[in-house]
Hints:
The protein is of the alpha+beta class. Helices cover 42% and strands 15% of the residues. It has helices at 22-33, 63-73, 103-123, 131-149; strands at residues 2-6, 12-16, 37-40, 47-51, 85-88. It is globular.
Amino acid sequence: MRAWLVDEGARLTALDLPADDAGAQYAQIRGAVGGSAEAAYYHRGSVLHVPATGRTDGVSTNLAVWALACGWRAMELPYLLYGPIVITGPYDTEGAAVEELSDRLTAQVHTVCDTVQETVTGWRTRRPASNEAALSELLAYTRRDLAAVS
């Protein structure tokens, strides 16, 4: 079963999780995020497995997953997301194992990650006026991308 690891640089790595072994799934997810993981829900068709440490010092912002979560919620989240994050489909009917992310949501994840990489690269030569302006720009691109892939 396919899941997606999104690192702080908006790079995607495919993870092949065992289909019917919830314990093995969680072990692999914990390994990918670097420790305990908490489930976060921003779209009914997905689960974001975020690092559970709550620490942000020394951990980079994950702009791609933050932008994706904002787009899925249709609002600007008042907080950022940090560290590597695994994206899966929802939990199965027993609430144990996770399911595979749909093709449509997978396409959205890929598109937003590509856009974040391009945007951040562009910021190196064309600096945003402020952090708020940068986040607003990123969210505008994300809304456009999600509408195009829906």
